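Check this.
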Amino acid sequence: MKYREYFSLTHPQQRIWYMEKINPHQPLHNIGGTVKIQGEVDFVCLEKAINYFIKKNDGIRHRFVESDEKVHQYVE
């Protein structure tokens, strides 16, 4: 089993978690958008770019675990 270091949530994260808990099906904190690409897409290159972005940005790899009404986070 892989060792994970767990962290407490910041106060803003706790507020977001609480709002999501009482409003589970309302995307209160989601930001949407679209991009229109004209021309051919190199999907291999696009996949590499997305994976690189995920690897370099810890916030994208945060995972949250809830137990006993407390929530903690770790970076995957």
Q: What stands out?
A: The first strand starts at residue 7 and ends at 8.
